[in-house]
Design a protein that fits this description.
nine-stranded mixed beta sheet; alpha/beta; 9 strands; globular; 20% strand; disordered N terminus; 279 residues; homotrimer
């Protein structure tokens, strides 16, 4: 089931038939690119159709990065080649919406940076647990002249309230484990040394429950809490439109000159760097 | 107004014409059964029609239990005999919905376990305050192969956000006072020694205000925050359906063999016990 | 742009073309009166039409008061003379709704009391930061027999959940910096000595970003999070109706005899005083 490409892999490892792990292993920075779209799509499809799996944990094999922004070095035609997904949405928001709607319980175990796509995947998951010391969550896009495209304007205000959502989105800054917990951006932050056992314990527990009871309970929560797809679709359109504007092109270009997409300070301290672009 | 039955009583004690206390006294565990339905219905009707009462506090006379799960030893025909309530919902969700809509302010003062019906009554109340040391909140149902039936899939995501609501519902675990406060499952948790005076102080304060101003302000909050009944009704249907499935029957039977419905470890540490049923 | 009147002024000070400060300077207590309506209206209109401004910070020049309740000493005809605003709402809720919808990012920097209109303006703003030691937020109205009129029944439950919103509104008590942060009534509370630099840093950061990316991102958050105007309008009607009732007239009269609208204990400890009116 795991797919290996030159652009890294998204590893699917069943801990048991009921409990799967999906590990982002896209060296060196877990930057999400077009090659990863069919990988994630295959996994999402499996979650939707497998008759045994009850819970999936998303984590990372890359030190310092849970999953970060989209690959801006990829050829535009590579990103544009994917057909609309089953929901009628573009490929990336389609997969995220389907993770939320899936009868399988999804848990993001966040160690390192969850920025852009990484934050959006975490927000589409059912629960989020973070390393208190090592997690950094952010929607960095506005800092680069972009509008986020994967659902956070629809999901964050429903999760953490309008005020804190606007702060996250409009300051485009890094949010550490303590603040993410205070804001409800994650369910809880845990000492880094405890995170893996804690998440594993929750996953094992849910995996021991009845699949129908899980699925029906989640389905009813979905009715009460999921944004309609009609709020998700315009975000992708706004993202694409913003990407074509000179403000974004100029900022991304300058970030590239500073070391964006390479291991180093820009990727590690992205919140700081986007804060300096317009000064 | 208080009704005594073999199945314990729900005591209605007016502290003043404006401020009532409703105390769950169903020994030995505050398990809510069919005999308690007409007791609570009479109280809810009084809250709706009394011209003076402004605030009601729900609390418990039973050490260790605020109010817990439904009585699974009751004969099914005893539970099925009640007609639909005034809202057109089944008897239990009908009463909970009417507490939320009532012009009277309802406060759950939670000391001990608030599980299942107990959590659902707390969630239907306008405010919840908990003993930091002695409160345990939970929706245990999924752990027993059941779907909760009294509204928590509609109410919890609106109160604490989708992620934390899914954690509470799908891990089916006990939530203590500190975590309940962090999550917003309760308004605040207080040192046990301060809880009673604190809640009494809030109730006395509200009781001193103008009934029309209270009722009109609450009515406008209701418009902004109450789930529609159309989200409440399917929960009860899902609960009944889940109750008939082998997964639930098997788990409840095994819990019974371990001491469910009796004073002791299973009822006191219900979160732990449901976590072991499927392993 | 700043307007000076006998009733104090609301100072508009551009820190830069992209970053404006709006300072409430209505001695001695920052009581908001009819003379301040056209002042604030002019500022809101400027925020809507200026082509450069990206962020505005609301703060206070008055020690101990961010912005407090409406002026009950003003002649009723002075308050009633304003035409409906552009949204079709009454003048005050019209301005608040327009602040929320504006493409400009609004930040309330709360030091001192934010009660009534002050809390409502903070809630209409995009973000709220508070002095941990010196901020007091409240909706005091129910304590005076009134129904709040500027949107808090629509905005507070969406921001902090139904239970905590009902507590704020129905206890009508003062909420300090720590509790406001726990409840999410403000984004964060900061040590008083750090508040100004912190807010300035956020404002400078946002001011350095692309105006289109900011506006489009906020527009999409608005879709997910703003109450419809149809929920705002009834609040003003309920406020006006409550103001005419004997309960409110009597309570306001007694507050006046105790020192309401004058520097001193009643205004400084308003939560305590309304709690004693009905005892």
């Amino acid at each position: 089931m795991s797919t290996t490409t030159a652009a890294g892999e998204i590893l699917l490892k069943p801990i048991s038939p009921e409990y799967w792990r999906v590990t982002f292993d896209i060296p060196p920075l877990n930057i999400f690119g077009p090659a990863n779209i069919p990988q994630l799509e295959a996994i999402v499809s499996s979650l939707e159709t497998d008759r045994l799996v009850k819970v999936v944990v998303f984590d990372s094999a890359i030190d310092g990065f849970f999953l970060t922004h989209y690959d801006f070095l990829a050829k535009p035609e590579e990103s544009a080649k994917f057909p609309l997904g089953r929901t009628g949405l573009q490929a990336l928001p389609d997969m995220l919406v389907r993770i939320s709607r899936s009868p399988v319980v999804s848990i993001a175990s966040i160690r390192g940076r969850a920025t852009g796509v990484g934050s959006e995947l975490a927000l589409a998951s059912d629960m989020r647990f973070a390393s208190r010391e090592k997690a950094l969550l952010s929607q960095w896009e506005v800092g680069a002249g972009l509008v986020p495209g994967g659902g956070p304007m629809a999901r964050l205000p429903r999760l953490i309230g309008r005020g804190r959502a606007l702060e996250v989105l409009l300051t485009a800054n890094d949010i550490n484990g303590d603040l993410a917990e205070l804001y409800g951006y994650v369910n809880r932050s845990l000492p880094d040394a405890e995170l893996d056992d804690f998440v594993d314990g929750i996953a094992q527990r849910i995996a021991s429950f009845d699949k129908d009871a899980i699925a029906e309970t989640k389905r009813l929560v979905n009715i009460a809490s999921l944004p309609p797809d009609s709020e998700i679709a315009p975000e992708w359109e706004a993202f694409i439109k913003s990407l074509g504007r000179p403000a974004a092109q100029d900022r991304i270009k300058r970030l590239m000159l500073q070391g964006f997409h390479q291991p180093g300070d820009v990727e590690t301290h992205l919140g700081d760097y986007v804060g300096l672009l317009g000064r």
